[in-house]
Design brief:
The complex is a heterodimer of chains A (312) and B (433). Chain A is mainly α and 312 residues long. Chain A contains 13 helices and two strands; from the N terminus they run ββααααααααααααα. Chain B is globular and about 90 Å long. Chain B has two domains: 190 residues, Periplasmic binding protein-like II (D-Maltodextrin-Binding Protein, domain 2, 3-Layer(aba) Sandwich), CATH 3.40.190.10; 203 residues, 3-Layer(aba) Sandwich (D-Maltodextrin-Binding Protein, domain 2). Chains A and B meet through α12 of A and α3, α4 and α18 of B.
Chain lengths: 312, 433
């Protein structure tokens, strides 16, 4: 049943004449309004406030109205004079490249294995997924012991093999890569599950047809599995990159950025700047620079992977 | 109907009387934020609070404790969220920042008079801003000294602690033990990476014993990048090179387990050392003056303090100052204060007030604390300045970079000096705005 409608204004949709329909529409607006208001108050509001703060010097203790205006000084300082920020940015990129690359390759590799007919498949899936549900801080503490230079089990194994002892988390050249390893251990299980779901969504008919045409395992993987997994790959790469660029808890709990900022990341530096040094303006500027970088990388990744998906 | 109405009236009356009486009986609630959070420390603080509440039935006190590493963050975020504590116990280096931001209430005149009458001037200066305003009751005074393991020194062939840096390097290297696989089972001098005070305070103590300065006397420029400062940082590099120290063995955690020969540390460590299983406090723990550097002529040290102060936004400032005064005042002559008792007997720290130093002199006469009491007479107070925490953290990172072999002492100190002076300049401009 349709009812005639009244056009009230340019921003309002057609208002039905029927009282029942009108009431329903009002309820619909009321329900939609609640999350919109929440979104504005708890997301858009803080983002806008943070942007405003990034143009000021604010110690979080003085009244907001008394913040001295700094314009773009915080941004200029970070990009030209804050050597720790530049170092942290480099470290964060290395962490993201290492973590995303390894998680994608290993996640796909293990997913292919778990998708095949290996024995104890369910047990393997559970084992791989367990680190994902373990508290990150607990993992960090555990790995601090495992990788200890003097008493760690990894060094015991290495030296038993006749190799030299390694500093790992206490070494300036190894701390960051050790953190990448821990992050891979922690999150690869999650990406295995995502890839596994993608693999199980590929119809078996394609493989059957390929086999009839004489395709081998590699050709099946190259021309069927990989192209059809591109949407999944896009999800894995984008979400993993965003998460890796925002890494905090793992670094905070294991090295704290040490030794001498060799494992400092952007978000940890942001935290220190805001809460240790009371420079909320500079920390907010860091957040916006990181946001811009993440946005840029995400758009690039989406375009690269999405376009090729459509072509395929 | 009238029966039901009567019941309703009676119940209402009972409710009003109950809550009214409760409100009258406890019309003031104070929150005290400290970093003393171990089980023993919590119990000792609660005893003090209970005693105060018993003699002041109108006041209720809630104790909140956080780890030292989170204390400043807790104060800042609490203020921002509008849930700040009434009474803070905090590290005096943060004082200028808090004062500039209007966090603190000025103590009442009678409190200032009591502090001036009962605390040494150097300690009062440590809790005052450059304009001479004192902002709270100073608590512990913490000079740094060389704490050493007599047994490990003796096993290495030494019966006395080092008196100068050459001896320090020699003894530290002799104590260190490395097995065939390269694992360090014992280290000569323990450093404390990852903890700003654990790195910068020992460095400052060595710097002062080498005739150097941290900041200028007027606190406007950094002075650690001097020949004396470079020599001090070179000492760290030399100790790493000769095996006398290694940043992978943390002195704070490993000295109590008996695997570290020497640590430059503060007196409040006594409780930990008494409970330590790897070293016998009475017979094996020794305390010595800071070894003198090649450019120094006498041992020196650094001393820091903490203070009790009141939040400027507290609705109960008067009650808060009364509580702080009650904790720090000597109620019976010769008995000392409640906080003095806590500092000496629960922490092993040196109290600021003269009456506490007198009342607990016997408790401070053991071989450990007595050495720190003697050092407090000559230790130089940590220079407090707005932005001081940031400068300290920058210096910590560069000292750790030298320990890790990532930079030279010259480059490290030059880098921090530049940043420190920029921070000091910025703070001056802020003050003028």
């Amino acid at each position: 049943m349709s009812s005639p409608a009244i056009k009230s204004s340019w921003w309002m949709p057609d208002i039905p004449k029927s009282t029942v329909l009108r009431r329903r529409m009002l309820w619909a607006y009321a329900f939609v309004a609640a999350p919109i208001v929440a979104l504005l108050v708890f997301l858009a509001g803080p983002i806008l406030f943070s942007g405003w703060v990034s143009l000021h010097r604010w110690d979080m203790l003085s009244p907001v109205g008394d913040m001295p205006w700094r314009g773009l000084q915080n941004y200029v300082f970070l990009l030209t004079r804050d050597s720790i920020f530049i170092k942290a940015l480099g470290n964060t990129f290395l962490f993201a490249i290492g973590g995303v690359g390894a998680n994608t390759v290993l996640g796909l590799g293990f997913a292919l294995l778990l998708n095949s007919r290996i024995r104890g498949r369910t047990v393997w899936r559970v084992l791989y997924f367990m680190p994902v549900i373990t508290a990150p801080l607990a993992l960090a503490v555990m790995f601090a012991f495992i990788f200890d230079r003097n008493y760690g089990v990894v060094n015991s194994v290495i030296t038993a093999m006749g190799l030299p002892r390694q500093p790992f988390l206490s070494g300036p050249n190894q701390a960051l890569m050790t953190l990448v390893f821990i992050a891979i251990y922690q999150y690869v299980g999650y990406y295995i599950v995502i890839f596994l779901a993608g693999l199980q969504g590929i119809p078996q008919d394609y493989y059957d047809a390929a086999q009839v045409d004489g395709a081998g395992n590699w050709q099946e993987f190259r021309f069927i599995t990989l192209p059809l997994l591109r949407p999944v790959m896009l999800f894995v790469v984008v979400t993993n990159t965003i998460g890796a660029l925002q890494v905090f808890d793992l670094v905070f709990a294991t090295t704290g950025g040490a030794p001498a900022n060799s494992s400092m990341t952007v978000v940890l530096h942001m935290y220190n700047t805001a809460f240790k040094f009371s420079r909320m303006g500079r920390a907010s500027a860091m957040a916006f620079i990181l946001f811009a970088i993440i946005m840029l990388i995400t758009v690039m990744q989406v375009r690269l992977l999405r376009d090729r998906t459509y072509q395929d | 109907m009238s029966f039901i109405r009567s019941i309703f009236v009676l119940l209402s009356l009972a409710l009003v009387l109950t809550f009214g009486a409760a409100t009258l009986a406890q019309d003031t609630t104070l929150t005290m934020l400290t970093h003393w959070g171990t089980e023993d420390q919590l119990a000792a603080q609660q005893t003090i609070i209970d005693a105060y509440m018993e003699s002041n039935p109108g006041v209720s006190i809630e104790l909140v404790t956080v780890d030292f590493g989170e204390l400043r963050t807790k104060i800042i975020t609490g203020r921002t969220a509008g849930i700040s504590a009434d009474v803070y116990h905090f590290y005096h280096l943060w004082l200028p920042d808090f004062v500039n931001s209007g966090v603190l209430d000025q103590p009442p005149d009678d409190a200032l008079a009591y502090i001036n009458e009962n605390v040494a001037q150097g300690t009062i200066d440590a809790v005052s801003t450059s304009d001479g305003q004192t902002w709270g009751y100073p608590t512990e005074v913490n000079p740094y000294l060389l704490v050493y393991n007599k047994r490990l020194l003796a096993e290495a062939g030494y019966d006395a602690p080092p008196g100068n840096w050459d001896e320090l390097k020699e003894i530290a290297a002799a104590i260190t033990q490395v097995d065939d696989t390269g694992a360090i089972s014992q280290v000569g001098l323990g450093v404390m990476p990852g903890w700003d005070s654990g790195i910068v305070h020992p460095f400052s103590a060595l710097l002062f014993s080498n005739g150097g300065n941290y900041l200028s006397a007027d606190r406007t420029v950094a002075e650690f990048n001097s020949p004396q400062g470079i020599e001090t940082l070179q000492l760290y590099a030399d100790l790493v090179a000769n095996g006398g120290t290694d940043p992978s063995i943390n002195g704070l955690g490993n000295f109590p387990s008996g695997t570290v020969g020497m640590v430059i540390m503060a007196p409040w460590w006594r409780a930990t050392l008494r409970a330590a299983e790897g070293v016998d406090f009475e017979t094996e723990v020794g305390v010595a003056e800071i070894p003198v550097g090649p450019s120094g002529d006498a041992p020196s040290s650094i001393a820091y303090t903490w203070l009790f102060a009141v939040d400027s936004s507290s609705p109960n400032k008067e009650a808060a100052w009364d509580f702080i005064h009650w904790m720090n005042a000597e109620h019976d002559e010769g008995a000392g204060s409640a906080i003095g008792d806590f500092l000496v007997n629960a922490l092993g720290a040196i109290p600021s007030f003269d009456h506490d130093q007198a009342a607990f002199a016997e408790s401070m006469s053991d071989h450990y604390v007595s050495a720190f009491v003697a050092a407090s007479a000559y230790a130089r107070p940590e220079q407090i300045v707005a932005g001081g925490q940031e400068i300290k953290t920058l210096l910590q990172v560069e000292i750790e970079a030298v320990l890790a072999g990532m930079t030279t002492p010259e480059d490290a100190l030059a880098a921090v000096e530049q940043q420190a002076n920029a921070i000091l300049e910025e703070q001056r401009m802020m003050a003028e705005e």
